[in-house]
Structure formats: C-alpha cells, structure tokens
C-alpha cells in the first residue's frame, strides 16, 4: 500500500490470466448436477475444462460444487457473489484478467473466449457479450476492491448485473453462432444439443 496515495502498489504483483468455471449452482431444473450432464457423450464440466485448456490462460479452476478446485467463500449465494469473492481474493495476489465461464455453456468457442480476454486486457475494462452476462472477463485490479466489498456487504447475494455495473463492464456485439451462448439449464435443451 502506498503511504502517500493509499493505493496498493501493484508493480510487484505477477500478471496472470486465470479462468474460473462457475459450477456451484443447485441445478434444480436439470435434476442433476449440470457439471455431470452429458452433451454428445461428454460431461459439460469436461467440455468447459477443455475449452479453457485451449485459451491463453495461465491456469483455470472450477468454482463451486463437488468438483471445486478453488475455495468458494460463500457457497449458494449465486454467481455474482462468487465472482466478487474471487476478485477480492485475487486483487492482493496478482494483476491481469479473470475469465468467468458457466459450466452450462458447452458450445462456446475458443475464439469467443479470446475476444473477451483480449478486449478486457487491452481496454482494462470488464466485458461480456450482448444479451449474456456470462461468460465475462474482468480485469484483476485493486481499483474495484472497496466498491466490491461494499457491494457484497450491502447485498450478500449480489447479482452479476450489479457486479458488472460496478466494474463499468462493456457489452460487446456477438457475431459468432448464437448457439454458443445457449445456457443448458433443462433436460430438453441438453437433449436438443445432443441431437
């Protein structure tokens, strides 16, 4: 922390691009954990992991649920809170970009993920695709710390919309196949993608 400005000196923090698969939902409409739902013979969690393996990330994690590889501080408070908690944890450890991907979007492409990562990194601003708050890429920066802490204190189950507004996120036009942004939250949708 800089004694004069009160702003954390980030010059010594390592730059990282990190991915987080959001997999902590209850999956009540699906009837089983979405991470284990098979689309074309492959569990959606495995599909998400493979996608992030091809993205320009230093590391990726599963956030929430039985397959979690990153400790979720406040389980069952929704994806907005999970994102806010992760950002608050990372801000003192590194700079860079955090990509948040829902486990139930098995049709996303590496190209689409790369657009989010590149835009967030170059613009130093959170970004998501129009009409879909997820996936989202958010810069890891201490400038959001106070506002995020106040946001989750005021509303523990904060929405993704509120987190993105606080981060001054920009909506990007989505020009790829609209199927990429299909959210698989019912058995009917899962079956339609497996056909």
Low-pLDDT runs of 5+ residues are: 1-10
Cα separation of the termini: 55 Å
Mean pLDDT: 89
Number of helices: 6
How would you classify the helix and strand content by structural class? alpha/beta
Biggest sheet architecture: 6 strands, mixed
Give the percentage of residues in beta strands: 15-25%
What is the rounded Rg? 17 Å
Instruction: Spell the H/E element sequence.
Output: EEEHEHEHEEHHEH
Global morphology: globular
Order of strands across the biggest sheet? Answer: 4-1-5-7-6-8
- Let me know the number of strands: 8
Helix content: 25-40%
Topology:
Elements: E1 14-22, E2 38-39, E3 42-43, H1 44-54, E4 59-63, H2 78-90, E5 94-102, H3 110-123, E6 127-129, E7 132-140, H4 145-154, H5 160-166, E8 170-172, H6 187-194
Parallel strand pairs: 1-4, 1-5, 6-8
Antiparallel strand pairs: 2-3, 5-7, 6-7
Helix pairs in contact: 2-4, 2-5
